[in-house]
Amino acid sequence: MNDTDQNSPEGILPFLISNDATDDPNKLRERMRRDGYLFFRGLISAADIRRTRAEILALCAGAGWLAPGTEPNEGIAAPGIASTEPQPDYMAVYNPLLRGEAFNALAHDSGLLNVLEGLFGEAPLPHARNIARIIFPQNTLHTTPSHQDYLHIQGTEETYTAWIPLGDCPRSLGSLVVMPGSHHSGVYSVQKAHGAGGVGIDTDALPFPWAGGDFAEGDALLFNSLTIHKALPNLTPDRLRLSVDFRYQPLSHPIAPSSLEPHHQQQTWEEIYADWKSDLFKYYWRDLPLTYAGSDPRVTAVREAALSSPRTEGETT
Hints:
Layout: E1 3-4, E2 12-14, E3 16-17, H1 25-35, E4 37-40, H2 46-62, H3 88-98, H4 101-106, H5 110-120, E5 124-126, E6 131-135, H6 150-153, E7 160-165, E8 176-178, E9 191-192, E10 199-200, E11 210-212, E12 220-224, E13 229-231, E14 241-250, H7 269-273, H8 297-307
Parallel strand pairs: 2-11
Antiparallel strand pairs: 1-3, 4-12, 5-14, 6-14, 7-12, 7-14, 8-13, 9-10
């Protein structure tokens, strides 16, 4: 019998939990085709998540972002600090974060890759452009708005994002919610907005519900590049929300060249790999039989229209 999170607030349906389908590729594909997402409990190695969390929080501590006298692993933000991408002080932490060996290795988690191979029916290709988010408490104006990842990724529509919080992430800390079924309607128009990506979708008139829930350490949300999703605001008084976005696609599908570049392209792979102890995940894509995709004209049209749209004001949550 399928399980669900029974504690979702009014207006947000509970996630359908798909642990029962991890060894059933047909069931995985059926659910993904229908809903545009899959949610798993305890799929990701807890030890690897803790290692990545510690790696990132050490950088936060070095930047003075953690409250003095607190345990770094708790991720308690220093009072009066709120930084966001792409501000220079944020990027001074974020670029070293992108060089983290534990952070990049987490994208190759065996439990996640096994599920993806079942879903694809072939080898998955992890994108090299790994992304992390450090979300400060109460910084609600910059909450990630409703959007589709395809607008930023392109390549094949059969690209999937794995959203993984680095530790427990209840709704109050700013977990992710998705709009099941929204992936069936192609590329949506957008307008300028605050938050990651800089654009958002007006979802008020769309006939789809939201689905969400609390995340525990090791949980993972996997969704199609056309599935509308957004973050909830971090409403905690003092906790940083740490999460990662890893993207995957079937190896045989075309990939956008930018997906094989470091996030923001402010440093080279040589710089990123300089202090790694292992060569296992360095340049792993270079010997693969890849094909490349050009720009999607639908995305070009949507972006041009967004340039003339007003920025949405207030909290983009």
